[in-house]
Amino acid sequence: MNTFHVHDNHESHSSDYKDLASLIYLLQALAFLLGGITFVIAVVIGYLNRAHVKGTWLESHFQWQINTFWVALLSLVVGTLTLPLVIGYVVLIGAIIWTIHRIVYGWNALSKSKEVKPIF
Q: For residue 14, which of 42, 44, 48, 49 has the smallest C-alpha distance?
């Protein structure tokens, strides 16, 4: 007698994208050691996979990671352009602290399987 079993692959699917979100956080963190190229790779991966997590708790992480990239890039440009005015150093230091905070905060929420909630 044949028995038809339906398996819910939703949990393993979610787990795959949770691992991918963790990899993106790792690539973002490695950008501080490797000159930023891994940050670009991370945002490309985020954009390519964002649609797959739409409507799930992981969507907030992918959006968080993408937003982190763009704000960090903008801060880097503004900080670099204003270096001659000395304020650039403050902008760059602030951007570094802000970016590290975003990576740690997001990765911590991900490790607890929780949606990332913007705090600022």
A: 49
SS3 35: coil
Domain carrying residue 24: 15-111
Closest listed residue to residue 21, CA positions, set 55, 66, 74:
66
> 13: pLDDT confidence band, cut at 50, 70 and 90?
low
Looking at the domain assignment, is residue 2 inside a domain?
no
Tally of domains in the chain? 1
Model pTM greater than 0.90?
A: no
Question: What phi, psi does 69 have (nearest 5°)?
Answer: -60, -50
Query: Is 112 in a helix, a strand, or coil?
Result: coil
